């Protein structure tokens, strides 16, 4: 069962969620990390009241029964390649009319992150509108900055206008129950935050 929670936005719980989703999306999660999530019953205790126990149980079951090699292959197909990703993790691939990385929306996000001191020391250069890095940015804003207003701006202006498309595509094209259910949970979490925080993201024309 989920924890007893109200619909009120809880920054500490949202930060914890951002940390988990960063680890699940930014790089292929290790077998050890997935085992930790399974043993801790993380998904059965996901602190979003609007998400049904049945949906959470589906993901927890998918995790417990997952074949790690198949999950890893699915992650490559969805988010990395080789070849064309089925669910590109970069925002400007969706918002740029030529599907380019580092487009105008990427630059706007980079300016926002710089203004909020949310800079990351990455091992190699990477567009900052990767969904995993956006969750890392959310974690930073809610923990180090303790700035809910900046977190709201991150979602409303720089993630929600296109992020849903990533998870729609991941749900559609995933070959494993775990990746499919994770995409559904991620979208449901963003939907809940949108409602709790009263967000009204701009509706952009998306090119994928």
UniProtKB/TrEMBL annotation:
Database matches in SUPFAM superfamilies: TorD-like
Lineage top rank: taxon: Bacteria
InterPro entries: DmsD-type, DMSO/NO3_reduct_chaperone, TorD-like_sf, TorD/DmsD_chaperones
Keywords for the protein's UniProt record, in alphabetical order: Chaperone
Pfam families (alphabetical): Nitrate_red_del (PF02613)
Keyword Chaperone: yes
Identification of the protein by name: Chaperone TorD involved in molybdoenzyme TorA maturation
Native organism taxonomy: Bacteria, Pseudomonadati, Pseudomonadota, Gammaproteobacteria, Alteromonadales
């Amino acid at each position: 069962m989920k924890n007893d929670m109200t619909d009120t936005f809880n920054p500490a719980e949202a930060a914890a969620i951002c940390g988990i989703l960063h680890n699940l999306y930014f790089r292929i999660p290790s077998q050890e990390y997935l085992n930790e999530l399974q043993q801790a019953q993380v998904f059965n205790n996901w602190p979003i009241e609007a998400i049904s126990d049945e949906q959470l149980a589906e993901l927890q079951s998918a995790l417990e029964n997952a074949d790690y090699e198949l999950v890893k292959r699915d992650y490559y197909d969805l988010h990395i390649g080789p070849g064309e990703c089925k669910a590109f993790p970069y925002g400007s691939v969706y918002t740029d009319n030529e599907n380019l990385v580092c487009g105008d929306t990427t630059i706007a996000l980079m300016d926002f992150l710089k203004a909020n001191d949310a800079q990351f020391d990455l091992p190699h250069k990477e567009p900052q509108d990767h969904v995993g890095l956006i969750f890392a940015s959310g974690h930073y804003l809610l923990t180090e900055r303790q700035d809910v207003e900046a977190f709201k701006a991150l979602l409303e202006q720089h993630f929600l206008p296109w992020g849903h498309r990533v998870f729609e595509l991941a749900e559609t094209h995933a070959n494993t129950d775990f990746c499919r259910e994770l995409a559904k949970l991620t979208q449901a979490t963003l939907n809940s935050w949108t409602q709790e925080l009263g967000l009204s993201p701009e509706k952009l024309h998306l090119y994928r």
